[in-house]
């Protein structure tokens, strides 16, 4: 029997509807949620991602603006802009689109953002709050994974979750979310990585398997137990002469081989991707609410 497809498009649509209602509630109290995005250079992927975020912001009632700087912008100029946005009372969320040009150090830029406005949840302060179980905001992609599981009917509570990947963007913060003694979490979590021996022995013991290695089709059918739930975080371009673009997008799992074996699986594209942007808006509204001191019904 084919797997249940956990559609991030459908789940994110429900979330965006909820967020629109929250944004309207804030506006009724005189607060317009505002997100400022900063992009340095014209990297095509970054341009595309920012446009998608602008579109989603408009859908949920978040006022957004993108500040674009030339590729050769000095780091000091970027830091000065962040300080200006930190001090701007009408700005509730700040997002610096990554990656940055090579001459700009990423860590000082992230750490310059006011943690209250850090809607990507990359600041060490917010990461620390997450790990101790008292988060202000949650990292967008990991939070999206949790929401897919909970809203898809596969809560991680009491389950063995195996995460393949230990990046600061996905693997580590997802561990931090799912290990907490909270509703929608409370899982036994194993994190695998390039130093893990006998990887397949571990992945086959997973009730829920999260693939976040950044390597196309790395999780094959023999590595997954029947009845497992698989969440594919990967987005990889592979050559495909049949496509006009010359490439197609695939995940970190061999989707075609897994879909007839597992209980449920996310597609690529259309799985975790739409959730990431929705959770960014979730964070922006949370930040606006916290900074305004108003409640949201």
Key words describing this protein structure:
single chain; 297 residues; alpha/beta; Rossmann fold; six-stranded parallel sheet
Task: Find the structural class using helix and strand composition.
Answer: alpha/beta
Radius of gyration: 19 Å
* Range of strand content: 15-25%
Q: Are there runs of 5+ residues with pLDDT below 50, and where?
A: none
CATH topology of the largest domain: Rossmann fold
Q: Give the overall shape.
A: globular
Q: Assign the CATH class of the largest domain.
A: Alpha Beta
The proportion of residues forming helix, as a percent range, comes to: 25-40%
Description:
With 297 residues, this protein is an alpha/beta fold. It has 2 domains: 91 residues, Rossmann fold; 134 residues, Rossmann fold (3-Layer(aba) Sandwich). It is 39% helix and 16% strand. It contains 10 helices and 11 strands. A 6-stranded parallel beta sheet has the order 1-11-8-7-5-6. A 3-stranded parallel beta sheet has the order 3-2-4, with helices on both faces. Strands 9-10 form a two-stranded antiparallel ribbon. It is globular. It starts with a strand and ends in a 5-residue tail after the last helix.
């Amino acid at each position: 029997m084919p797997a249940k497809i956990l559609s991030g498009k459908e789940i994110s649509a429900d979330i965006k509807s909820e967020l629109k209602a929250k944004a309207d509630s804030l506006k009724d109290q005189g607060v317009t949620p505002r997100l400022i995005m900063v992009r340095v250079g014209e990297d095509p992927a970054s341009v595309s991602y920012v446009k998608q975020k602008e579109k989603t912001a408009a859908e949920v009632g978040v006022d957004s603006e993108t500040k674009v700087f030339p590729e050769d912008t000095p780091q000091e100029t970027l830091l000065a802009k962040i300080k200006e946005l930190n001090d701007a009372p009408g700005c509730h969320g700040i997002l610096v689109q990554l990656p940055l040009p090579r001459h700009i150090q990423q860590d000082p830029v992230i750490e310059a953002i006011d943690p209250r406005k850090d809607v990507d949840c990359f600041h060490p302060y917010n990461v620390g709050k997450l790990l101790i179980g008292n988060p202000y905001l949650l990292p967008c992609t990991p939070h999206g994974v949790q929401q897919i599981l909970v809203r898809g009917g596969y809560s991680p509570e009491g389950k063995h979750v195996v995460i393949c990947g230990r990046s600061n963007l996905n693997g580590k913060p997802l561990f931090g979310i799912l290990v907490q003694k909270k509703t929608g979490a409370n899982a036994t979590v194993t994190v695998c990585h390039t130093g893990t021996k006998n990887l397949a022995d571990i992945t086959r013991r997973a009730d829920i398997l999260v693939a976040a290695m950044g390597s196309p089709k790395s999780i094959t059918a023999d590595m997954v137990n029947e009845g497992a739930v698989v969440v594919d975080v990967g987005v990889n371009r592979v050559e495909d002469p049949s496509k006009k673009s010359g490439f197609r997008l695939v995940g970190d799992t061999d989707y075609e081989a897994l879909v007839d074996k597992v209980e449920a699986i996310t597609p690529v594209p259309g799985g975790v991707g739409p959730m990431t942007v929705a959770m960014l808006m979730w964070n922006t509204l949370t930040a606006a609410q916290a900074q305004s001191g108003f409640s949201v019904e």
